[in-house]
Amino acid sequence: MELMYSSTRNKNEKVTASQAILKGLATDGGLFVPDSIPALDVTVEELAQMSYQETAYAVMKQFLTDFTEEELKNCIDKAYDAKFDTEEIAPLVDAKGAYYLELFHGSTIAFKDMALSILPHLLITSARKNNVKNDIVILTATSGDTGKAALAGFADVEGTKIVVFYPKNGVSPIQEKQMVTQKGANTHVVGIHGNFDQAQTGVKEMFSNTALKDELAASGYQFSSANSINIGRLVPQIVYYVYAYAKLYAEGVIAKDEKVNVVVPTGNFGNILAAYYAKNMGLPIGKLICASNENKVLFDFFATGEYDKNREFILTNSPSMDILISSNLERLIYRIAGNDAEKNAELMKSLSSNGKYEITEQMKKELNDFYGNYTSEEETAAAIKALYEDTGYIIDTHTAVASGVYDKYKVATGDTETKTIIASTASPFKFTRSVMNAIDVKYDAWEDFELVDELSKIGNVAVPNAIEEIRSAEVLHNTVCEVAEMEATVKAFLGMQ
């Protein structure tokens, strides 16, 4: 049976998986969701024997039903190869009573690699399946990690171009250096004078601009997205939660069907939504613990049922989570509204016009799977320091938000027995200054790459290749624009002006 995808804002817009991947965003601005969430058709005993690649096929074939076995396996094999620096792809580390799922062993040392390594292959396969002749222009906003991972995935991929917008003063120095040194004739990186939400809104507006769509088509182009609004990003993220559960079972940490909790540092809500989808596929997940930084719009939502972005935007040391409009939350809202596209569209219209919306009492009852909390900047730093001093294990600032919130969850609920997976979303080397300052303030006076070498020494871990290669890399992208100039910048890159 072919699984179809619908827009969260219009139940009549139905497409295949490959068409949803190609389009990225629905015509009406909605997000594509599967008409039903398929069940896992393999047992935990079978999963326990599988490699990461085999697990990826077992999960993704359930969602991408218009891909042949050969097509999907080809995409998986090209994605999860030697570009990952561990054979396991996503290893688990037991530290201080929690299992840290390291999702940062890809080429850009952040969890986005897990999906953005495969998205270019899914996209090109989808284009062939649908007889697309245009070049595909990947248009992406980033709060720091998606940008580099997308650039690395799409660099010099034939038939594609990629434009990444990032907040000029809203990413870490390492994140920025990774992006602006990106090679590839088809890549374009632009800093904007604004924050991530403004970049994301600008990108969404270009997607829904029909006049621009016609102009692009006349020039032989069409837009697609590498953000987690693309279902081709979301589906591969489900895989690592299934893989992690199976590994814990294989190692005898959990019994068959034993529930685990999952903690995810959350900004755009895609990564925790993937865990929610895994639970709905039948994976025995207890609580989905949504961890926010001081931009705690999601914590407030889970506490009150009101989503309100009308607040101060705070720049933190976990910049990939500095987000006030969590785009993927729309997929959850649609589901807890009973897959009611009309109700969801009404709420999203309220968000667009008033900056907020409130869900019904009935919808609130559907959120029992989730627990939300946040950490302050001080608590985030304290979590890094405490884990290092207790175990010698060093985590990045985003993972520290999750670790700090997990501690709060245990105190609030008394649930200290349930085995817990913490999504470790970035290498500490990506946020070296913040991490090292948390361990000891003396490091504040050190140079960036001195800190890299010191982190390697005290953490007893090799410096990742992603960091080594930017030590002396040449800056290739220095375009900066105003938010209002984003469309013109894209046109100029494509030679349309």
Q: In terms of quaternary structure, what is this?
A: single chain
Number of helices: 22
Spans where pLDDT lies below 50 across 5 or more residues? none
Helix content: 40-55%
In angstroms, what is the radius of gyration?
21 Å
Mean pLDDT score = 95
Helices and strands: which structural class?
alpha/beta
Report strand order across the widest sheet. Answer: 4-5-15-10-11-14
Q: How many individual β-strands?
A: 16
Largest sheet: 6 strands, mixed
Beta-strand percent range: 15-25%
Q: What is the overall silhouette?
A: globular
| CATH top level assignment of the domain at 92-110 and 232-468 | Alpha Beta
Distance between the terminal alpha carbons, to the nearest Å?
Answer: 46 Å
Do you know the CATH architecture of the domain at 92-110 and 232-468?
3-Layer(aba) Sandwich
> What is the CATH topology assignment of the domain at 92-110 and 232-468?
Rossmann fold
Please characterize this protein's 3D structure.
Helices cover 44% and strands 16% of the residues. The mean pLDDT is 95. Helix 1 (17-23) crosses helix 6 (119-129). It contains 22 helices and 16 strands. It has a domain at 92-110 and 232-468: 3-Layer(aba) Sandwich (Rossmann fold), CATH 3.40.50. The chain has a 6-stranded mixed beta sheet, sandwiched between helices. Strand 10 (260-265), helix 12 and strand 11 form a beta-alpha-beta unit. By secondary structure, it is α/β, with parallel strands linked by helices. The protein has helices at residues 17-23, 44-48, 52-63, 69-79, 112-116, 119-129, 145-154, 173-180, 196-207, 210-218, 231-250, 270-280, 297-304, 329-336, 341-354, 361-365, 377-391, 397-413, 432-439, 448-459, 465-468, 486-493, and strands at 5-7, 10-15, 32-34, 92-95, 98-102, 135-141, 160-167, 187-193, 221-224, 260-265, 285-292, 306-308, 356-358, 370-374, 420-424, 479-482.
